[in-house]
Amino acid sequence: MNTLTIDIRKAEPRDAGAIADVHNAAWRNAYSGIIPHKALTAMINRRGRDWWATAIRRAASILVVEVGGEVAGYATLGRNRARELPQQGEIYELYLKPECQGIGLGTRLFKAARDKLRAHGLRGMVVWALEENNNALDFYAGAGGRDIAEGVEVFDQKALRKVAFVWE
């Protein structure tokens, strides 16, 4: 019998290619048909291996979840960017390979990201999700987030509503 280990840790430069691959697959899965194709492709292409390697070297807070030694997902986090919200921390992104969704890895990565924000002394947390991304809305609501604010993101002149979920 084989036992797969699940590990959540700070991203390292050697993870850049794997994170880029997760980003590509997860964004195509989550946003195809929501974000215009041209804009989505451009966003994905900008965030390849070199982009992620630079982000990791610049000490960005990036966590990865590994399953059996392979990166299955990532989360980026830091200070809340929305000044109108009192929560101090924010998870900017939390994505898993599509085949790794729905088995509890996202919940574990979310908890680790939240714990890291708390360890940095940041009280409260916010996460934004596009309103048409039902999987994200369901995930954050199921994790106890309260939907308290709305905003808009524009992609190739297409305005998409986004929702802020908060935790105290």
Fold and architecture overview:
The chain is an alpha+beta fold. The chain has one domain: 3-Layer(aba) Sandwich (Aminopeptidase). 35% of the residues lie in helices and 33% in strands. It contains five helices and seven strands, in the order βαααβββαβαββ. It has helices spanning 16-31, 37-46, 49-57, 105-119, 134-142, and strands spanning 6-10, 61-67, 70-79, 89-96, 125-130, 146-155, 158-167. The protein has a seven-stranded mixed sheet with strand order 1-2-3-4-5-7-6, sandwiched between helices. Strand 6 and strand 7 form a beta hairpin. Helix 1 (16-31) runs antiparallel to helix 2 and helix 1 (16-31) packs across helix 3 (49-57). The radius of gyration is 16 Å and the shape is globular.
Entry keywords:
globular, 168 residues, 35% helix, Aminopeptidase, alpha+beta
Helix-strand blueprint:
Elements (H helix, E strand, L loop, with lengths): L5 E5 L5 H16 L5 H10 L2 H9 L3 E7 L2 E10 L9 E8 L8 H15 L5 E6 L3 H9 L3 E10 L2 E10 L1
Parallel strand pairs: 4-5
Antiparallel strand pairs: 1-2, 2-3, 3-4, 5-7, 6-7
Helix pairs in contact: 1-2, 1-3
What's this entry about, in short?
With 168 residues, the protein is of the alpha+beta class.
